[in-house]
Write a structure and sequence with these properties.
Cytidine Deaminase, domain 2, 5-stranded mixed β-sheet, 287 residues, 31% strand
Length: 287
């Protein structure tokens, strides 16, 4: 939790994403019955930086401070925790918006980068589906983080178990069936931190954001496992966090493969059961 002079709501670091009970009709053949079920909560969160509107992120409430920090890292506004002076919930908003508006105070070189970003666009709207939408290219990333470190190997058997480790951390998915998940693990496959959200990009921003705020970047002895497919943006976030291996239960995109190969990231896809595909830098895998 980072707070400044204006104060902010205390947010437990391990607060779980929210779910809501709704009434529905379950139809099985000609039978219709009314039941109650859980759905994942989705709400917009406005991120202001130094008081200026910067982005609106559609997300599942929970771990908002880390999400904001991870998002600003990916947007190249901040590059380490020392450039974040405070993250506060705004109280000068309509009552119904409280809890959904954050102001991040940035300092040092981040102030100049903020001016550049604000000049590039008045507002970035990130939906749960599109993330950063490939706005940056691989070439532009090389000025920030050319390649990852990580001179180690990990048994292929450990990689095969990563989706299971992630699945065991998906409590909100158990209740709703409607959220994505991401987790950081150590080299033995033990989960260090997991997050769930309606957006895959948001889940990754939350766990990378926590590491940023805790001053633990680069994560050069960690692995990232994600539900669903691997897009360019997810590999980008791994690169900026210094994560050398990314594993996913589904397919990567072509641009994700290109970036992983250029950045030295081991990229694994279709990690299911006893098999998986390796799209880049398989030398980190043993066995």
């Amino acid at each position: 939790m980072i707070s400044g002079s204006q104060g902010s709501a205390v947010e437990p670091p391990d607060r779980e994403p929210e779910a809501r009970v709704v009434e529905l009709e379950r139809r099985i053949g000609a039978t219709i019955r009314t039941e109650a079920d859980h759905v994942a909560v989705e709400e917009p969160m406005e991120v202001r930086v130094n008081g200026s509107p910067f982005a609106v992120i559609m997300r599942t409430p929970g771990e908002d401070l880390a999400l904001a920090a991870g998002f600003l890292l990916a947007e190249d506004v901040v590059r380490d925790a020392t450039e974040i002076g405070a993250i506060e919930r705004c109280l000068d908003v309509e009552p119904e918006a409280r809890g959904n508006v954050l102001n991040v105070t940035v300092v040092g070189d981040a102030v100049d980068r903020l001016a550049v970003r604000l000049g590039e666009r008045r507002q970035v709207i990130t939906t749960a589906a599109c993330g950063l939408c490939g706005r940056r290219t691989i070439e532009s990333l090389r000025t920030r983080a050319a390649t990852v470190a990580g001179e180690w190997t990990v048994p292929a058997a450990v990689v095969r178990q990563l989706p299971l480790a992630l699945r065991q951390a998906q409590r909100t998915f158990d209740a709703t069936g409607g959220v994505h998940a991401a987790a950081l693990t150590d080299l033995d496959g033990q989960v260090l931190r997991a997050a769930e959200d309606v957006g895959r990009h948001n889940a990754v921003d939350k766990i990378i954001g926590h590491a940023l705020l805790e001053g633990r970047l680069p994560l050069d002895r960690a692995m990232l496992v994600v539900s669903g497919r691997t897009s360019y943006e997810l590999v980008q976030k791994a690169l900026l966090g210094g994560v050398p291996l990314v594993a996913a239960v589904s397919a990567p995109s072509s641009l994700a493969v290109d970036l992983a190969r250029a950045a030295g990231i081991t990229l694994c896809g279709f990690v299911r059961g006893d098999s998986f595909n390796v799209y880049a830098h398989g030398a980190r895998l043993s066995g």
